[in-house]
Amino acid sequence: MIKVGVIGCGYWGPNLVRNFYKTPNCEVVGVSDLRPERLQYIQSLYPKVQATPDALELIRNPQIDAIVVVTPVATHYELARAALLEGKHVLVTKPMTRTTAEARQLIELAEQKGLVLMVDHTFIYSGPVRKIKELIDQGELGQIYYYDSVRVNLGLFQNDVNVLWDLAPHDFSILAYLVGKEPISVSAIGARPVNCKHYEHESVAYVSVRFDDGTLAHVHVSWLSPVKIRRTLIGGSRKMVVYDHLDPDNQIKVYDKGVEIRSIEEQYQALVQYRTGDMWAPKVDQTEALEVECRHFIDCCLGKAKPLTDGYAGLQVVELLEAAQRSMDRGGEVISLVRAASA
Amino acid sequence: MIKVGVIGCGYWGPNLVRNFYKTPNCEVVGVSDLRPERLQYIQSLYPKVQATPDALELIRNPQIDAIVVVTPVATHYELARAALLEGKHVLVTKPMTRTTAEARQLIELAEQKGLVLMVDHTFIYSGPVRKIKELIDQGELGQIYYYDSVRVNLGLFQNDVNVLWDLAPHDFSILAYLVGKEPISVSAIGARPVNCKHYEHESVAYVSVRFDDGTLAHVHVSWLSPVKIRRTLIGGSRKMVVYDHLDPDNQIKVYDKGVEIRSIEEQYQALVQYRTGDMWAPKVDQTEALEVECRHFIDCCLGKAKPLTDGYAGLQVVELLEAAQRSMDRGGEVISLVRAASA
Amino acid sequence: MIKVGVIGCGYWGPNLVRNFYKTPNCEVVGVSDLRPERLQYIQSLYPKVQATPDALELIRNPQIDAIVVVTPVATHYELARAALLEGKHVLVTKPMTRTTAEARQLIELAEQKGLVLMVDHTFIYSGPVRKIKELIDQGELGQIYYYDSVRVNLGLFQNDVNVLWDLAPHDFSILAYLVGKEPISVSAIGARPVNCKHYEHESVAYVSVRFDDGTLAHVHVSWLSPVKIRRTLIGGSRKMVVYDHLDPDNQIKVYDKGVEIRSIEEQYQALVQYRTGDMWAPKVDQTEALEVECRHFIDCCLGKAKPLTDGYAGLQVVELLEAAQRSMDRGGEVISLVRAASA
Amino acid sequence: MIKVGVIGCGYWGPNLVRNFYKTPNCEVVGVSDLRPERLQYIQSLYPKVQATPDALELIRNPQIDAIVVVTPVATHYELARAALLEGKHVLVTKPMTRTTAEARQLIELAEQKGLVLMVDHTFIYSGPVRKIKELIDQGELGQIYYYDSVRVNLGLFQNDVNVLWDLAPHDFSILAYLVGKEPISVSAIGARPVNCKHYEHESVAYVSVRFDDGTLAHVHVSWLSPVKIRRTLIGGSRKMVVYDHLDPDNQIKVYDKGVEIRSIEEQYQALVQYRTGDMWAPKVDQTEALEVECRHFIDCCLGKAKPLTDGYAGLQVVELLEAAQRSMDRGGEVISLVRAASA
Q1: pLDDT tens-digit series, residues D154-186
Q2: How many beta-carbon pairs below 8 A join chains C and D?
Q3: Do B194 and A227 count as a contact with CB atoms less than 8 A apart?
Q4: What is the ipTM of this complex?
């Protein structure tokens, strides 16, 4: 039995509480939040859960085995570090930290202490992403040529982060999980298209990520779209995938379409031609991603599994965010990635 | 009565012949193409039209008033120039020329000779684009914040141009027409995601265009998408538009959605909030764009109108293409636009 | 403060408990169900609510003011009657009763006792249906010509009712609410397309309802469709509506399309021509229908409102179901409706 | 070489001329129409084709081998009969004739004369319908349980026929082709929902067709829908098909969904349960159906093939139309089909 404390009961925290509540071998012991009304809300739903305004009270509670950090990103490092120092396993919401330096320190600390450090990259635990991973691993798509994601809607402008840090972690985590190659450079263009002196964060951003072998990934995130789009195109040498998270019937469509290259001897005109075939929409597991993730975290705490989205996965995402932000700040300059691992 | 000669009977040429054929005050006198089978095809449809393998024969034909150039871009400048020198009005298909230098020479020559020089930016004459222009001119959308276009499909890899020069002229011409501001910089990322030694052209490209006032435009073009998408999002301060060329019922949707900015005194939390209202899909004229364009060209030749898509419109598109190509060649470097006008 | 007891905690009951739980001036005192695991489930969510296997315990509980009946239809009459006899207000789920005779008795009893008798026709309280009603009442659609509803999916075959009694109550209640005319005849075709000796209920049904003035309504319900469709077309003399409950962005689309009749003098060829104009998707209130309904029921119990979906509304639906069932049983025979009111 | 004459150059006739024009072993010799402007139109496109206002001129022309009848249905019998009597093969547009009596006489005459009599049931030659037929023949769908078609749009009100005779022939011919069973009864409900004294034809109709083994087919046709829908659901014991003619990417979707029946011993609750699996959209041949049909007709005239849509197929459709019309005229009465064959 793993006893859990959840720090942060804003928009996302209650979803984690709800899912840990029904996870086997797990008990939600306490929650904390600075806002009394949020604590009251959680207690109206779960009367037995202790509620405190003081996060440290949870972190220091000897009954608690694992701390879940669901607070604004600026506080992730400090809270996760304190929890690890107290010997607690940690699950921290995305993005893991503000900087790669912070992320590396948390990884090191967790390794020293032999504790679980997991990042809440929720989509990695969702049915469609797991299915696409399966298809890629089986070689169904062939070699991955490109990855193109659009994640836009009319969204709440966040006070603490821009649209890049709010939405792109989803894409970067999925990208890293599915493509599994080393990115070599990042460029990004952002805009604050709304005339507001007092609001300085980008609300539209386009990020390009290049990989060693020529694979190109592109991510479009926006809080300023009149329609909600969650669509990823993945082009492979054998097949192509359209992943539309919002299509209830067919979240994944696999197209037996592609490009065929002919040797120059064969013919004169078209060196590259396309072929089209059937489309196939595999059945996708509809279990809530967070439910799968919470179970996995408890299994990790119990020593039964290694985190799929560990500190290194979190670090990768922060690296891409950092580089994209630097590029945006410099008007779109291409930023080379010199990975710590290779340094 | 304007007598027309059409040079080039490949994919697009026959569409121009068909439309000029039914345009009032116009007669298609002759066509030319290097391929006998294409000439034969045209003659099977229009037995009275003269067909010749020699473009110069048309250009020098004293009966002909106007020359339509529908050949590969590499030949546009030479053919258009020859036609202008022979005192013919010219309609040239997009992109106008390979370089801005060529475009400027054609503009100058046409002005010297007092001849019509028009570029076949077909979409400018389409119902949906004209309707959006109308909405913008009426102030319905307010100030334009961003322009985002996706133009992707599984396309024929062209032998003479990359995907940027093939597809982006459509977006650049629409962008220039609708937004009507001066672009200040361009950056572009391209990829040749397919391993083919003998095929060197980019088949995927992402282009960002910045304007003086902070407006951001972004264009995604690809020949490697399993699904065909032709969708443009235009965000304004008052309303937002989704233009989906492939939605037969609702090509244009106007969303009464947007962002509201509050003064910092008013409240603490959200400086920027969104509002959502009705959606409205105006009826769109379904006349074939090329039919409207052909009529307009004849009206221009007859001195009854000034070309909507004149040489300067063509030049603007070539400027953006040139800058985007340079950026792609330099791995995504941001290219400043120093416009000739301001030089 | 109205104290409520809920009988039946199967699929739908918990939704009523959840909504009454957050309704002002209301307290959920107790629930009953024959299945211990269902009671346990409710208590895990709402520890303070009393749970009993005995419905009569709730009905006789002097603390309780109103009884909500959410049981299989076969038990509605008996439970509602007992509750009314004990002086409780009653909300009964659809369809109100098995027979019009039962429905009439409940109406009479409630009137004698001066108690609220309301039927849970949930859709009447939904944003889209209320919006369509508003449009009709404002004359926006003109005269209603036809009503066509498709409500199909791959559904659980019910053990106690066929697809008609399961799904058509939704359509019949919406139809009665929106069209507001007297139906004069009903015909229905049903099928048990699956070869199963032991399963005797229809799983596909088509129902036609004729009205006095020539208006035609048609309802297609099915548990055997591979895709889920919830779409209603409403044709009016001025405008037409497409109501797609599953389209998250545009549940209601109002088409400025219609038919224009010309006098025979005007022209020879087409007496009737169509015109097409803009489409408009009004913003629709997304409040959960059941929340609106629960508040309305409490307001009715407090004497502040008259039930929108009262016993007579419930009776109308049962009349249509009875007639449609009779038609199905007779192979599609047209059944005239002689309304009790006119008898 | 088969020499063809086409009678009727209204909306559909030119499509037949265009397709016969490019059919191998075929020459379009002449066309006829009562309207000079229609003849002029055809001659502007095909200058070599003879044009005459007199259909009999074509029928009696000894050079012509085959007559294509594309006129209003009221004239089909007379024209086809005259052509057969003159020894010409005949292709007649749908519906074959006004009555089954007429259809039977044409069949008999063609058999006596040893001539080809084919009906233009275009959809039978379309890629999607041929693909569904293939799936059914391969046993992919299992036993067919139901067939449900919706064919609605805002349509031109025809002067000579109602919506049943205009649109339902498509569905009846596809139904007969795919399901291949003997229908035993038909019922239909129609409406003239528009108040127009001078227009007496139904513009909305619902038709149910029952088959011997319990299979149920239902067809909804309308000229009064604000949206165009062309969608057929086919439920089989193994798989289900959605055929949406207007979905350019996926005209056919095959759902591995269905219903499983359990023996009563196995369990108590659900005798019938559903299962859901993958969806698959096979590639569909996009050749124009009419092109395939025209080639097939010429092959039949040359003795190389037997008509897929012969007189008997035409008769079947007229039988269903006749019965449905009778049912509509009697307010929805169920009409038993006593087939001539079994009489």
Answers
A1: 887 777 889 999 999 999 999 999 998 889 999
A2: 186
A3: no
A4: 0.92
